[in-house]
Design goal:
35% of the residues lie in helices and 27% in strands. The chain is an alpha+beta fold. A hairpin with a 2-residue loop joins strand 2 and strand 3.
């Protein structure tokens, strides 16, 4: 599981909670890739002690929150710095979500961690696939 692997790599605690339903393959891949990007940033930059990933099905959408208690950053400063174009992982993630009709939000405070939240529209969920393979 991706969250557990990253937590082991950075010696952090991990918590994954929420929906275990299966969704359309395109939705699942979008959610996985976006969570993967958020978690890669936790591994590279956050110096976190805890990582929490939550999945919540809400009406016709799936909301995902990736939170850490790491060092945080100034979101506005990161987007306005001269080399910002060279660091486009989060921007690409946000564009993928918007292209799918979803929304994304990044909140962070220096010294207080970071939260990457996104919501993507879903088709009707398929039955739970516990045991069919690994999820986050």
């Amino acid at each position: 599981m991706l969250v557990s692997q990253i937590a082991r790599e950075i010696d952090a605690e991990a918590d994954v909670s929420g929906s275990s339903a299966r969704y359309d393959l395109a939705v699942e891949e979008l959610v996985y890739r976006c969570a993967q990007e958020a978690l890669a940033n936790v591994r590279k930059h956050a110096q976190a002690r805890t990582i929490a990933v939550t999945f919540v099905e809400d009406d016709d959408a799936l909301r995902v929150d990736v939170r850490d208690d790491g060092c945080g950053f100034d979101v506005e400063m990161v987007h306005s710095r001269p080399d910002a174009a060279l660091h486009f992982g989060l921007d690409t993630m946000i564009e993928r979500i918007r292209a799918a009709g979803g929304e994304a939000k990044i909140e962070s405070e220096v010294g207080a961690g970071t939260s990457v939240s996104f919501t993507v529209p879903i088709a009707a969920p398929r039955p739970s696939a516990l045991g069919r393979g690994e999820r986050m």
